[in-house]
UniProtKB/TrEMBL annotation:
It comes from Oceanisphaera arctica. Pfam families: HTH_1, LysR_substrate. GO terms for molecular function: DNA binding; DNA-binding transcription factor activity. It comes from the Bacteria. Keywords: DNA-binding, Transcription, Transcription regulation. Coiled coil: none annotated. This is LysR family transcriptional regulator. Belongs to the LysR transcriptional regulatory family. Residues 4-61 form the HTH lysR-type domain. InterPro entries: LTTR, LysR_HTH_N, LysR_subst-bd, WH-like_DNA-bd_sf, WH_DNA-bd_sf. The keyword Ribosomal protein does not apply.
């Protein structure tokens, strides 16, 4: 019986997740041609077709779906075993604060990898939609790390990615044409909500808060139901939503910034490095992490 190399399985799982060879290649820091060759090699080893390639990407065959589940379990076990030996001396509590939109999307594989690679570390994640509240908790010593979305000209932190806020509606509801404009937003203190209200007031457009939630899932459910227009970063727009480009005021650009407390343990430093080095974020500057005790966050 032939062995299945871990490297090939890791490539396959990434392709199965993204269903796009180019995207998978970028996340794995390899050329698309290398990814293609690794997939072909894996199919030779299992003697069956795992992926069907087409004009718009790839899709898993029934055999591919079966392997995906088994491969993910094997990779998790492999990483847990390796982490227990390589990082057994890295322990301690890691208190991490972030927005719901990160915790449920881009951070999921990163946090999973951290838990597997550092089994002795005790990760505690706190989600809140108010960036300034998270930063105040960090300054007060109640958080070690904070990954937040800030206005593009804000000071402090390591800027990992740049985006912009956009208005979104569902495909089936013309919510953006109602008067006054109904909004589906987070509760008070959210940067998205504040930016939307300020932009509408500046343009003199009447609006009302039709739906509020403390979670991204709740806000998007209201948008899908036609209850209100939502405000989210462009890079997080769901496939079943429409970006409203006309008739509403432009919204500000944003930075995804990572803040770290001035005194942290090694486990916290490793999580910061995991986030910073992830291909999921595109580094837009070379700014360093700042001392939160002296650097203002406005």
């Amino acid at each position: 019986m032939r062995d299945l190399p871990i490297t090939l399985l890791r490539t396959f799982v990434m392709v199965a997740e993204t269903l796009n060879l180019t995207v998978a290649a970028g996340r794995l820091h390899r050329a698309p041609s290398t990814i293609s060759m690794q997939l072909s090699r894996l199919e030779e080893l299992v003697t069956t077709t795992l992926l069907e390639r087409g004009q718009y990407g790839v899709r898993l065959t029934p055999a591919g779906e079966q392997l995906r589940s088994h491969a993910q379990q094997l990779l998790n076990l492999h990483d847990r075993i390796l982490g227990s030996f390589q990082n057994a001396d890295i322990d301690g509590k890691v208190r991490f604060g972030t927005h719901d939109q990160y915790a449920t999307r881009s951070l999921t594989p990163l946090l999973e990898a951290f838990v597997l690679n550092y089994p002795e570390a005790r990760l505690e994640v706190f989600c809140d939609h108010r960036p300034h509240h998270l930063l105040s908790l960090l300054r007060e010593g109640k958080l070690d790390l904070a990954l937040v979305e800030m206005p593009v000209l804000s000071d402090g932190g390591l800027r990992l990615d740049r985006d912009e806020l956009v208005w979104v509606r569902s495909h089936t509801h013309m919510t953006h044409l109602r008067d006054p404009l109904p909004l589906a937003v987070f509760v008070d203190g959210c940067y998205h909500r504040d930016s939307a209200c300020q932009a509408l007031e500046k343009m003199g457009l009447p609006y009302r808060i039709a739906f509020t939630s403390q979670s991204r899932a709740g806000v998007l459910a209201a948008v899908r139901a036609g209850i209100g227009v939502g405000v989210i970063p462009r890079k997080t727009v769901e496939p079943d939503m429409v970006v409203v480009e006309q008739g509403l005021p432009p919204l500000p650009k944003t930075n995804t910034s990572l803040f770290i407390a001035d005194q942290v343990n090694e486990a916290t430093t490793r999580l910061a490095q995991t986030i910073e080095q992830s291909p999921q974020f595109t580094h837009t500057t070379t700014e360093h992490l700042v001392d939160m005790a002296t650097e203002p966050c406005e």
